[in-house]
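Quick one:
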Amino acid sequence: MSKKSKQDLPEPAPGEYFKSRLEALSWLQQSGYKVSRGKFYGDCKKGFPVIQKDGSISKYQTVVYGNRLQDDLITDPTALESSEYRHQREKAEAKMAEIKAEKMQREASDEWINRTEAYAMLAAITGAMRDSARQWLYRQASEIVLAAGGDHDRLAEAYELMEQAVDAAYNEVAGSEVSISFDMEGE
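Output:
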């Protein structure tokens, strides 16, 4: 059974009637109008199309009702989503699901670290490094002065000793987490 086009159907005269709401609904659906039984019956209860005392419904009012339905669908895309809207929504939902899956995968991976956590760790390391360098320089201060002998000509020896102190401080901060040893160049 093929659906008839709305243009192929003759428009009923104002005096013609469907015997019942069910017959009017069947005609609407066969004519290609998208309407459910609940919506049509609810609209009939609201007063249009008008149900006669014998239960019949004007064919003319039914056609007008169907045309209004069609106009509402054209002006209100939320009433019945077209395949384009559905496609766009499905595509957006798929993209959101993909992003969510990637985020969960990154969070579960050992190779990923949260940016906030990384910055906090870097700040902690930098602070610890500052404190450690100060402590090493403080502990080595007397040796620096002795190495320099209070003589500016021995500045290279003092500088070398300070570099050793900074290397020792970096190694202390690195601890067991990082296996890096900072040595002076050329040694």
